[in-house]
Structure formats: structure tokens, C-alpha cells
Amino acid sequence: MKLLGFIFFLLMIGTFSPAAGRSLAGADIMERLYDVDDPPYVTIAVHNIGKMGLTVTNMGIIGTSQLAPIADPVTGMEAPSLAFPYGFEVDYLFEASLWVGAVVGQDTLVTTGSDGDWWGVHEFWPLPYPEGDIVYRSTINPHAPEYDSAVSQQDFIAVYTDTIDDVEVTGFDEHTGRIHRPLNIQVTQRSYAWGYDYAEDFVIVDFEIANMQLRELHDVYIGLYVDNDIGRLNTGGRAYDDVCGFKRIMGSKYIAGMVDTIDLVWAADNDGDPNPITGAFAGFMSPTSAMGVKILRTPADETRFNFNWWVSTWDPDEDWGPRKVDANGQVRRFHGRLGTPLGDKSKYYMMSQDEFDYNQRTTYYNRSLEGWMPPPENAFQIANGSEIKYLISCGPFDVKPGDVLPFTVAFVGGRDFHHGYDFDDVHLNTIWAQWIYDNPGVDSDGDGFKGNYYIFCMNPQIVYIDTLVVAPGDTVFDTLRQCTWADTIYYRGDGVPDLVGAKPPVYPEITLYPRINEFNQGEITIRWNGYTTETTPDQFRQKIDFEGYRVYTSRSGSSNDFTLVTSYDVENYNRWEYDAARELWVINNPPYEMRTLRQMYGEQFDPAPFYDENHLFPFYNARRGEWEFYFFTSHDWNRSDYHDTTLIHKVYPDQKYPSTLNLDTARMFYPDEVTEDGQLKYFEYRYVLRNLIPSIPYYVAVAAFDHGYPPANLPSLETDPAESAVLEYAQNTSRLAEERGLDVVVYPNPYRIDGNYRTYYEGWDHPDWPTERTRALHFTNLPHKCTIRIFTLDGDLIDEIVHDYPPNAPASSHEIWDMISRNDMIITSGIYYFAVESEAGSQIGKFVVIY
Fold first, then answer.
1. Nearest Cα to 502, choosing from 146, 153, 207?
2. Which of 53, 201, 423, 789 falls between 20 and 30 A from 695, CA-CA?
3. Strands 841-850, 751-752: parallel, antiparallel or unpaired by DSSP?
4. 355 and 273 Cβ atoms separated by less than 8 Å
5. DSSP assignments along 587-656, one per residue
6. Which residues share a beta bridge with 779?
7. d(CA 842, CA 788)
């Protein structure tokens, strides 16, 4: 984050929307902070690993709060406020801000990251650099420093407080003349994002609010203020036509006849901005999505929370929001306004008042009989879109010194909303956000409770009826029912945060055996053991879901530069069943392996002839006394020939499944099932890369993938090949070179300055480097440990290279010289000698350089 610093962000927060009327200038804020000794280090970070691009800050603000561009400190590109999908210049958020209010003595105080009106009040600030910087964590690379303590593929951690009480820094509300009075709280903000298909449409933000003072805070309320301003970037008027509302329940995505409680505050552009002539949308370039905020956690299980929205304008007469009347038929105004809560007392009133607003689209309904004030004269205009802001809040809580209040929300996007106000996608993404935050069916705290569940029973049939006459005319019926298929489906977690999503299987550790064959062609044999990969349950579903392996090669090692060479996957099939309630064919189970299908339907069963709804497999269920009908489709390629050595194959193709998966037990009692190095033979695999060019290096990777979970629309997940890639040359190993006493070879020899070796020998992965720094002379057939010295014909030492690798390690027989002397000079044309010295002896050779 140091690349950005606080200056650029201060410029950002001083920029304001045309609707704002006036704001503090960025230069003014910079000038004020420069007057502060050791100023707070304000910076941003950008979530961009999924389809949602979201900027977070370390001052209690989500989004960029501006219209002028600001740079992402990592990429240098323009930081999105909230782009969805990311990269198409459609924005769904001006700003969101944390609000915390409490009763302190006889006063009500509210601390805000942004106060939601026009005076540039910012009361949360980080520490100076480096303590105030945003911390980055990631689960992508287990070997990277940021992997330690990471939760998601992209974690950002910020800490800030409200303890600065200098009005020149925090600003003040000119409506009320009120200056900032700190609550003395510290906020630890953690935001999480994933790039997997099922989790790429939301970002989870977790706040921990700690009471740092020595007295108790009473009647604390926590709120999230949101101003969306949805539309295309750099277009006028996008702030004036938003709509918002609250969606409590929808029909279940996975269980027919049930409902999902999603409790989602949503906002959208009023019409998606279609082409005014054709009425068509411009695909991703149109604001046709919905953007929601879902509260995932509050400080108490049973907590009242409010939803309030309002139309915010500079003109007090146009500033309006839904409001209930009191017992005297009066409505409280905020300094003459019915909408924007100006000042601490108004903000606290809105957070603490027991009021849940109706949806904006129904503003014109007269709800006077329900206790609401009548709709305004421009109700239809408001219902059709306006400059809308909203607040979701919860409380009250009493917070003792040192106590921490947790508050977690998810920003959730949903595509194709403007296909008839369609909530399907945002509904599905909200469910996944809930499931990742709190995994269903997982007992996180060990108390035996795994969450709420539903027993799904397909085609229940009465199989037994018994009667018991208790008294004349009083008969009790005891009925037993059986299901064709039943399962326990967890739809809610145990209330303890997990923040764990479905992951691909653990990739296997590979060993490479390069060589040059009898035809002078390079080969690399890849070998691995899949014991851990194939027996480790997925953390999210707690079930083993291994499907197969894929072999990749690359020249650069970048994630987007790997080429698929071959694949292996378990032979398994999806079984399709007819859902009479929904009148469609569905998959209710994970794929069945062939051995399982034959256990169910007979040793001769072959699913191939039963491949669609017109070619059904009839099965008579004797227990139910009726016929069942299914069809089957292969899951992935079903490429699993253990014996074919031209494909991924098992080293021991006839080895049966292990008698035990405990390695110590297997080594002691079943030695015939274990390899020489103590691994289970059943999981040993091999693949040979052939016809390789010996002179160039290859990144080689074996990725593992799972079968997903079709009933929940969870796609197959695969490890990134770059995570497990190993760089190797298709040359003889150092062990082979030592055992056979092979001569050291130098290439290219002669080296021509006009040889255009970049493609094959030199710095092809650094195309922007100067040519002088990418030239490369290669030595191969080296012992794993040796010293290479280069001399002129006169015997002057040009350079010395210490070559030291573990025996048989990747590239242990290979070394590169950049043709720069030990005095940092470019060598000239001529003949040069080299000497290689090792424990095995010495060797002298020569090479030629031609300019």
C-alpha cells in the first residue's frame, strides 16, 4: 500500500458528486493533515480476484467516495468503487460507511467513516505509517509470506480508531456546529474475496469494534450507511435514478417447496439504462445487475435491526424518507428535513428507532392506516428512481471496557436483474455468501450442533400400517413410510463463523526425472503419489470429492500460460432423476463411480445405453414395489485407463485398493501394498513428457480437480497449475551425469550476437529487459555440486560460478551464465575456456563468441 500513500486518497475524499452541493477540497484536507505531527496513513486496497471489483479503505469507508479516478496502489490502474462485473466501467457504489453510535452520559454520539451529508466529516482514522497500512493475506500460494493466517484468496486487514478529536482533521457538521467527540473505539476491518466460480460475486467485510476506554458504552448501535449511485462511469445523472428495497424470503434454490430467508437490502438502477431508441441493453456495459448488502453477523443472536432509506438533496423541501408518526401524529424532522439525518442526534435516532421502511418502488401507496406518514406529492417520481441512500443498523448493546462487538456484512452482486426484476442470481449468490461465512453441516465449536437441516424424502411410500384401539371409537394409527431416496440437507450453519469455501483437492507433490533418450530427444518423467489428494475431505462439504489430475506445461510459469497436455479422471456418472414437483430432470447426488453403480444395479450394468430422457434405464425397486426410471451422463471425460503408458497411468495398475489408509499400519502389516519409500502403491502415478527440446526449460505441473457438487450448482474446482509448477530441463540428471561421467556441454556454441536466441535460450520471460541482461550461455551435464570458471585464451579469469544443488534436484545438472564478467563488463568476441571442478574430478572445454 506504500505505493499510494495518503496524499492520493485525500485528494479522493475531497472530490464530490454534483449532487453534493459543496464539500471540503482535497487540498484543504492535505493542508490540515500536514499540520498534524506524524499524520494518519490513509490508503486503499482493491478486491479484484473475482467478478466484483471493490475498493476498501482504512478509514471506515468502503468504495472510493469520488468521481475522479484514483489509482489502485498495486496495479496502477483506476480503482473501482464497486464494479460488477469488474472491468466494464459500470459502477454500483459511491460509498458505504461504518456508523457506530452510543449513549455517553447525557449525550448521544455517533462516529462515522463518512457522515452521509455534505460536510466532509471523517471521524475514523488509521495510525501513521507503517502501523496504519493495510495488510494483505492470501491462500493462493502456500509458500508465499502472505499465506500465513490467510482466510480467503484475497484478505485485506485494516485497523483504525475514532480517537483523533482535532476538528481540523475530522471536520464538523456545519448544520449543527457539532464537532467530533470520540467514543474511543478501535475497529479491525477484515475483508475477504474468492475467485472460485461459486464465490466470485461477493465480498465479505468483517468489523470488530472494540471499546478502548475505561468506562462502559451504553445502548450501542452499529450501522452501515450506503450510497449506491449506480450507472456507467463518466456519465451524468447516474446518482438520480436508483431504486432500493428489502428482500426477506425467496423460494429455495435447492429444496422444492421450501423458502430461503435471505434478508437482503438491494439496490439497482431503475431501468438498466437501455438504448433509448432500440430499448436493448449493452450487455456488461449496462447497469442491469442488482447490488445487495447482507448482514451475516451481529453481536447477539437475537438482534433487532432496521432498514431506512431516504432521498438526499441539498434542498430541504425535497429531502424526504419514509417515517412513522408518533402517538401525537407528529413526525420528527432532522433540522427541517424528512430524509437525511444531519448530526449525531439525528443519526442515532434513525439507528435506534424501531422502524423498518417499505420498498421504495411502492412509495406511492398510502400506508397511513399502518402508522406511516402519507406519501409525498412526488411519490411516483421517487418510486421510479431517485438519489437514494440507505442505512441498515442493529442494536442496542452495552459494551464493557475491552469488549469487542462483531459485525459482518457481504456485498453481493446479481446479474440480469433487469430481466423483469429478476432476483434469482443475487438470491443464489447471497446463499453462497451465507454458506461460506457459516458452513452448513459443520460443527465449528464442537458442541454437537451442525446447523439447521431438512430431511429430504423422495417419493415417500406407506409400507406399514398398524392400529391400536385405545377405547371404543378411539383408534391410533401407527404408520411407517419409506423413501426412494433420502438425505439430510443442511441449509444453515451452527452460528459460528467458518469463512471457508469449497476448495479443489490438495495438489500432489511431483518428482521429475529428466533424460535425453537414445534418439537425442528430451523427456521428463513425472511421478507422484495421490494419497493425500485423494483421501482429504473438502473443508466446505466435509466429503471426499476427488475427480482427477491434469498435466500442464508452460514456458513462463504464469497462471494464464499453462497448456494442458493430458488428463486423468475417475470413471463416474451423473444420475438424472425426474422431479415431479418441478417437472424437470435433476441431479440429486454427487456422481456415482462405476463400482457403486454395479453394486446398485448388478455386475453387468452399463450406463452407456441410457444417456437421455428418451433412453431411460428402468429399475424395479422390489422394496417399494414399483418401477423407477433414470438416465446417466458421464462426469468429465472418464479417462481412467490405468495401464496405458501414453497417458497418465498407475505405476502399479493391478494394485487393489489399500487394506488400510493408515500409513504406519500399512507399512507394518501390509508391506506388499507399500512402495520402497513408504507410500501406498495404489496411489502411485506416472506420466512421460516426450519430444521435448533439451536446450530450453519447461515449467511442469500436475493439477488436481474435484467433481464439484451438481445438486448445488457447485462446479468442478481445480488447483492453479502455477502453484505446483517445477522448472526443469529435459536433459540428463546430475546423478546420471556423475554415474556415467558425461562430458559437460556448452550451448549455443558458437554463440552469435545475431543468433536471435531469445526464443529458445535466453530471457523470454523478461521481454522488456535489455538484451545485454538476457543473454545466456548454458552448461549442462554438470555434477550437482561444482565450480565453473571461465577464462580468456591468455588465462585471465573472467567469471566464477558456484553450482550447488541437492542431488538430483530439478535443474541440478544445468547452469546459466549471463556473459557478463565479474567486473560487470560485457565480454567481447573470441575463444574462451571453461573449467569445471567437483569432487568427481575436473574437466576443461572451450566455447566461441562471435559479434
1. 153
2. 789
3. parallel
4. no
5. E-SPPEEHHHHHHHH-TT---TT--BTTBPEEEEETTTTEEEEEEEEESTT----SS-TTSSEESSTTPP
6. 746, 815
7. 10
Collapsing DSSP to helix, strand or coil, 370 comes out as helix
CB neighbours of residue 583 within 10 Å: 7
Q: Are 80 and 12 in contact (CB under 8 A)?
A: no
For 803, the grid coordinates are 553450482
Do 95 and 63 contact (CB within 8 A), yes or no? yes
322: alpha, beta or left, given left = phi > 0 and alpha = psi -120 to 50?
A: beta
Burial label for 234, CB within 10 Å (0-12, 13-18, 19+), is exposed
Report the pLDDT value the prediction gives residue 576, as an integer from 0 to 100: 96
Instruction: List the grid coordinates of 422.
Output: 429478476
Closest CA to 35 of 173, 171, 160, 169: 169
**CA separation for the pair 284, 288 (Å, rounded):** 8
DSSP string for residues in 681-694: GGGEEEEEEEEE-T
What whole-number distance in Å separates Cα of residue 358 and Cα of residue 216?
35
Angstrom CA distances, 525 to 507, 702, 739, stand at 18, 12, 19
The reported pLDDT for the residue numbered 471 is 55
CB 185 within 8 A of CB 211: yes
Cell of 625: 414395489
Count Cα atoms within 13 angstroms, Cβ side, for 577. 18
State the residue for C-alpha cell 437525511: 340
Cβ contacts of residue 185 below 8 Å, gap of 6+?
A: 100, 111, 161, 162, 209, 210, 211, 212, 217
Q: Residue 337: name the closest of 116, 84, 589, 595 by CA.
A: 116
Taking alpha carbons only, the member of 516, 556, 518, 527 closest to residue 813 is 516
- DSSP sequence for 48-102: -SSS-EEEEESSSEES---SS--B-TTT-SBPPSEESSTTSSEE--SEEEEEEEE
d(CA 545, CA 543): 6
Cβ burial of 119 (10 Å; 0-12, 13-18, 19+) is: buried
Give 680's contacts (C-beta < 8 A, 6+ positions apart).
529, 531, 658, 661, 663, 666, 673, 674
What does the alpha-carbon distance between residue 274 and residue 14 come to, in Å, rounded to a whole number? Answer: 32
Residue 489 amino acid letter: I
Domains and CATH numbers, the chain: 5-433 (no CATH), 449-501 (no CATH), 510-570+639-729 (2.60.40), 572-634 (no CATH), 734-850 (2.60.40.3080)
Classify 388 as helix, strand or coil: strand
Q: How many CB atoms lie within 10 A of CB 354?
A: 7
Q: Average pLDDT across each block of 10 residues of the chain; the chain has 851 residues. List them in order.
A: 36 32 33 62 94 96 80 88 92 96 92 85 93 94 87 96 91 81 96 93 98 93 96 76 94 76 94 88 90 96 91 91 90 90 94 95 95 95 95 96 97 93 93 93 88 70 54 55 62 89 91 90 96 90 90 89 95 92 84 92 95 96 87 92 92 95 95 95 97 91 92 84 91 90 92 72 52 81 96 95 92 92 91 94 94 82
Q: How far apart are CA 91 and CA 234, in angstroms?
A: 10
